[in-house]
Specification:
By secondary structure, this protein is of the alpha+beta class. 48% of the residues lie in helices and 15% in strands. The chain starts with 6 loop residues before the first helix and ends in a 9-residue tail after the last helix.
């Protein structure tokens, strides 16, 4: 099946290619040699709205289509394969400082799905205008989020305020092997076993 790109797709391609060439390519070899994570580049990708390309705007994404997402991954991978993987494996979830329970639970459900798929999750609270006064409320929300995901994820980064965003980053836990049923204790085993009749000589 052939996909036809639009002018909007090609405009996005040009922007991401320029970003990749300027922000990632000069550091790619060194980061690969030192096994480093391109933290600053990822932060910039997030601020540009490219970390959640295929997800609806109301949930913190860019609201673009799957082809836009594929173009973004392709252009980043052009200069550094690891950068393309990061874009595809790090999912962003956006909250407001006064997110209601319905919205929170909906995003929590999506986060569980991402983590079960092996993706990292970066959640953030965006403070708009005077809502920055509620930064403590934002921190409580992110800590609650991490606590509700403790069976699915470990915390890579505790809540930190960066400009108008407070972020927390989570990584999926390795799936634990199913527990085998505990062997019965000797006393229990003897109770469960039928009593043997003594044979008479």
């Amino acid at each position: 099946m052939l996909f036809q790109t639009t002018s909007a797709h090609e405009e996005l391609r040009a922007k991401i290619r320029s970003f990749a060439e300027e922000e990632i390519k000069p550091l790619a070899f060194l980061m690969d040699q030192n096994n480093e994570f391109p933290e600053e580049a990822v932060k910039k990708l997030g601020k540009l709205g490219w970390m959640g390309i295929p997800y609806p705007k109301e949930y913190g994404g860019a609201g673009l289509d799957a082809l836009s997402y594929a173009i973004a991954v392709e252009e980043l991978a052009r200069v550094d394969g690891g950068a393309g993987v990061i874009l595809s494996a790090l999912k962003e979830i956006r909250f407001g400082p006064q997110t209601d329970d319905h919205d929170y639970n909906f995003k929590l459900k999506h986060a569980k799905g991402f983590l079960e798929d092996g993706d990292k999750v970066k959640a953030y609270v965006f403070f708009k205008g005077r809502s920055i006064l509620f930064k403590e409320q934002g921190e409580v929300l992110l800590l609650r989020f991490a606590n509700d995901l403790e069976d699915y994820a470990k915390v890579d980064q505790m809540p930190i305020l960066e400009g108008k965003r407070m972020t927390i980053q989570l990584s999926p836990k390795k799936s634990a092997a199913p527990k085998k049923p505990a062997a019965p204790k000797p006393a229990e085993a003897s109770k469960a076993a039928p009593a043997e009749e003594q044979s008479e000589d």
